[in-house]
Design brief:
Elements: E1 2-3, E2 6-7, H1 18-34, H2 52-61, E3 67-76, E4 89-92, E5 101-108, E6 111-121, E7 124-131, E8 144-147, E9 156-160, H3 163-171, E10 181-187, E11 191-198, E12 201-213
Antiparallel strand pairs: 1-2, 3-4, 3-12, 4-5, 5-6, 6-7, 7-8, 9-10, 10-11, 11-12
């Protein structure tokens, strides 16, 4: 039976809810309006923000497929027979196919032996230096580096030398490197930096991200 103004609750669409559901809906609305239980009306929590490390690696990965020229801006003290002097320096964000990992070959002139391997490990980043001979075989000093030990920021991460690297440096008579701290910076569209410091030593290369350069050949071993 209908009233002059439309169907009754008993016969109309609201009846599809059932009396119990309708009562529960009205009660929930009343609680929200009264405000006695704020949690009942709270919005879902926003997703957790990405860690600084994840943000950093995302910024690097967004450059995948591009190459950029760089220059040495600090080299203290200059090394004898420095392999970087007078050479074209090019970083190539080359491989981003594995989630949480980016491979960045660093070309020094025709020397294509160096690749930076950046891997997201929980809320930190691991930096490794993959060094190869021209035939693709690993160098005696390779896969050294370390994990970021602090959250860092989305634009700068620091990597103190790890125990694996210390043991290798000692074995290869390079114990001077046992206090190495590497760092990387990324300022999208502006600058990327690679840095090495230890007591008495500072080396830094900066790359111009505003002006991509031709992609170089594949690094040795890849």
């Amino acid at each position: 039976m209908s009233s002059e103004n439309g169907p009754t609750l008993a016969n109309g669409p609201m009846s599809q809810l059932g009396n119990g559901a309708m009562v529960r809906g009205i009660a929930s609305l009343a609680i929200c309006l009264i405000g006695s239980l704020p949690a009942a009306c709270a919005r879902p929590e926003a997703p957790a923000a990405a860690s600084p490390a994840a943000g950093f690696l995302t910024s690097v990965g967004e450059m995948c497929g591009k190459a950029f020229g760089g220059k040495v801006v600090a080299n203290e003290p200059p090394a004898p027979n420095d392999p970087f002097v007078g050479q074209a320096l090019v970083m190539h964000v080359r491989t981003c196919t594995t989630p949480g990992e980016v491979l960045v070959p660093f070309h020094v002139g025709e020397d294509r032996s160096r690749t930076w391997v950046l891997t997201l490990v929980a809320d930190r980043i691991r930096l490794k230096h993959d060094h190869r001979h021209q035939d693709g075989t690993p160098d005696a000093v390779t896969m050294y580096g370390g994990d970021s030990t602090s959250p860092g920021t989305a634009t700068r991460q620091e990597f103190p030398v790890d125990d694996f690297s210390k043991a290798m440096f000692t074995r290869e008579n390079r114990a001077v490197s046992n206090t190495n701290v590497w760092a990387m910076e990324v300022h999208p569209g502006k600058m990327f930096a690679y840095e090495l410091t230890r007591p008495g030593r500072r080396f830094r290369v900066e790359f111009d991200l505003a002006t991509p350069v031709p992609v170089p050949p594949a690094p040795w071993g890849q």
